[in-house]
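User: Can you help me understand a structure? I only have the sequence.
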Amino acid sequence: MGYEGRLTWGAAPAVFFDRDGVLIEATVRDGRPYPPRTADGVRPDPDAVDAVRALRAAGFALAVVTNQPDVARGTATEESVRAVNARAAELLGLAPDSFFTCLHDDSDGCSCRKPEPGLVVRAARHCGADLSRSFVIGDRWRDVGAAHRAGCAAVWIDRGYRERMPEPPYRRVPSLARAAAVVLGAHGGR
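Assistant: Let's start by predicting it. Here is the structure, written out as tokens:
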């Protein structure tokens, strides 16, 4: 559990989604996912709109926590990342201020780059969420690690990437639709 993950800022449960490969489609090259470069390239995951609606209707606060290290690497701009976030928010019916983005690379040593819990903790404060009743839905080991360190449950969408496996515990599912079903089932389907 993370240093701040034991704290709760309210009674609301939340779902913290990763962005690329979860809510919006990622381009997979050599077994690794890559984000869209422009807002025009944003394509929602086929299950995303229904998952967002179902989780919102069940009373979950919703936020997006996304690593975007290409800014630190010089291959993307902050403006392009903001534009992709805005387009995703528009297509999925999410509030633009519900996107929390880390623009750092591993060598920056920040507390917001997943698997560190900083983004999840910031999003929880923003939402008034109880981390112990919340979930992180992601498609990479870093998402599961951030869930653990923040004190949330983890749901891992296995997209078959060729990279490090997440550390347990987590629920492994094949799709965002199944991930939403797991979250809803864990909270009695309310």
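Now, to help you interpret it: Residues 14-186 form a domain with the Rossmann fold fold (CATH 3.40.50.1000). The chain has one domain: 14-186. Let me know which part you'd like to focus on.
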